[in-house]
Amino acid sequence: MTHFHRVVYDCYRRLGRSFPWRETDDPYEIFVSEMMLQQTPVQRVMGKYEEFLKHFPIVQKLAEADLSSVLKVWSGIGYNRRALYLRNAARKICEIHGGTIPSSLKALLNLPGVGQSTAGALLNFAFRIPTPFVETNIRRAITHFFQIPGETRDGEILSLVDATMDRKNPRTWFYALMDYGASLRRRPEKGEKKEHRHEPFRGSRREKRGKVLRALLSLGELTLEELERETGEERSQLTPLLRDMVEEGLLKQKGEFFLVGE
Question: 2, 90, 135, 205: most buried by Cβ count inside 10 Å?
Answer without folding.
Answer: 90
